[in-house]
Design brief:
This protein is mainly α. Helix content is about 65%, strand content about 5%. It has 7 helices and 2 strands. The chain is elongated.
Length: about 140
């Protein structure tokens, strides 16, 4: 199958052709363009548009869910780099001992990071940690 192309007649930033197999940063840029309604034309294949709209809706739902629980951008920005690493590994399903081994820190240090993460989030819910992990990947 030929690589299909999106022809964005957008802004000076994205003149030219963009392959359908976009990298993560390009997907985020496209989502921003959709939300800002700067896209005026896409080539005949609307599958990419549909997929981007679904991704956008999912992220909006995720952000709204966290916001309703009081987890704002300020909370996300307050996590230290080590806490972000722990969040990522919790989201991957690793246990405390595995996280400690992976990060070359003690079990006690991982427990302290977990405690601080949950305190900043004001909850003890692993599903919220997974949601935050997804957002941290794209921010």
């Amino acid at each position: 199958m030929k690589s299909q192309l999106i022809r964005p007649y957008l802004t000076e930033d994205l003149n030219g052709l963009t392959p359908l197999h976009l990298h993560q940063r390009e997907i985020i840029n496209c989502l921003n363009l959709f939300s800002e309604k700067k896209v005026r034309y896409l080539q005949e294949d609307t599958r990419i548009t549909s997929k981007l709209e679904k991704v956008n809706k999912t992220f909006v739902k995720l952000i709204n869910d966290l916001s309703n629980k009081g987890i704002t951008l300020d909370v996300l920005e307050s996590f230290t780099s080590q806490e972000k690493k722990v969040i990522k590994r919790i989201a991957e399903g690793l246990q405390t001992k595995e996280i400690a081994t992976d990060l070359f820190i003690s079990d006690h240090t991982v427990q302290t990071h977990r405690k601080n993460i949950y305190k900043k989030m004001n909850c003890n819910n692993v599903s919220d940690v997974v949601k935050i992990s997804l957002l941290l990947e794209v921010l």
